[in-house]
Amino acid sequence: MAPEPQIPRINEQRLWDNIMETAKFGALETVEGGMNRLSLNMDDKQVRDWFVARATELGCAVRVDAMGNIFATWSGPGNDRSDLPPIGMGSHLDTQPLGGRFDGILGVLSALEVIQTVKESGLRLNRPIAAIDWTNEEGARFPAMCSGSSVWANARDLSDLHNLASLTEPLETMKSELEKISYLGETECSYKANPLAGHFELHIEQATHLEETKKHIGIVSGVQGMRWYEVNIIGREGHAGSTPMNVRKDAMVAAAKMILHVEQIARKNEGFGTVGFLKAGSDAPNTIVGEVRLMIDLRHPSEQVLDEIESGFKAFLCSLESETKGLRTTIKRSWENAAVKFDQDAVACVAYAAESVCGDSQTVMTSCAAHDSAETAKVVPTAMIFIPSRDGISHNPKEYSTPAQCAEGAQVLLESVLKYDAL
Ligand code: HGY
Ligand code: MN
Ligand code: MN
Ligand code: MN
């Protein structure tokens, strides 16, 4: 019986050095020496170019599709199956405007580290493996989180993105930037043009479950459901000094009540409700605000509860209108992703790898945060791996995981892919 091939070990220092090196791109020195990078690839062209250069050095074939997703495929020496779709190891290089150094980029750099480790070990795989950067996962600058992966999965049409009213960037900027992004690559953006045999994503947990349970690795079995709503509240501008309180149509006061309602109804249903974006009035302290635009980010594992909360939003907005004669409100669901369950075989590969890497210091869990894997799961077997985030902090320059945690997560990624390759 041929002996089991020696499983190669991730190079912890090399992975850490790459994470620290790429955190410099587009970074602004922020609190306590933390770094953050401007959001979105168009600002982070440097990190994309860095990724392509490193992948090319490793001997990967690099393809960029029409949404700017980057596929760096390594077939290995003498791999006579290079015609087969690769096993993908993806995540995202873009960040939040006040983002950290690990969200997304850990998964992409760990995928490169897996390729280099397998290459140096001389291990022969049955399939190619690919490191993938999915464009605009954060949706921080352009609307619709996971734009690149959702178009690849044919879950969203490219034209949708052009039509989505951008709330954080003037429409013209968004359109011209999207024009650039949407034609960055030569291949069409679809799983038919860049097929995968499976998809594994290493990501920081961005919450405290692993820390609280003192586990090293999360075996992620799915992602909770999420929706974005665009709310407009239209009242009437007025003089702050001479308009009596009882005749005002103050859109800012109504918006404040709506924000509190979101917070209370999410708590009551043990979900997640956030208003992270608000655009109001004319910024004049002595003019009553006539118009407010806000965006609600709502998340819950149950679609039924999401529906109930959504009806609650509509009813509450109606009550605001009846409270203040003449006040008008609109609400539109502008983005959504239903709750996703990952493929059992792919999850089993992660469980096997986690057991081999860290014994029983692992736990099965659902992701509260959105990920590109929720899109790839729509077309290929997918699973995710979590490592702990210090104090659960993320979307914040203080985001932190240790070198050992990053390397342990990358080792589980490597062994998950080896297990899946052997299926
Ligand atoms: O919002 C999210 O959950 C992801 O980080 N974009
Ligand atoms: Mn992320
Ligand atoms: Mn994020
Ligand atoms: Mn993600």
UniProtKB/TrEMBL annotation:
Record protein name field = Peptidase M20 dimerisation domain-containing protein
* Family membership: Belongs to the peptidase M20A family.
Q: Which CDD domains match?
A: M20_bAS
Q: Where is the Peptidase M20 dimerisation domain?
A: 222-317
Q: Which UniProt keywords apply?
A: Hydrolase
Please spell out the taxonomic lineage of the organism that makes this protein.
Eukaryota, Fungi, Dikarya, Ascomycota, Pezizomycotina
MF terms from GO for this chain are:
hydrolase activity, acting on carbon-nitrogen (but not peptide) bonds, in linear amidines
- What is an example of a Pfam family matching this protein? M20_dimer
Q: Which superkingdom does the taxonomy of this entry point to?
A: Eukaryota
Among Gene3D superfamilies, the record links this protein to: 3.30.70.360, Zn peptidases
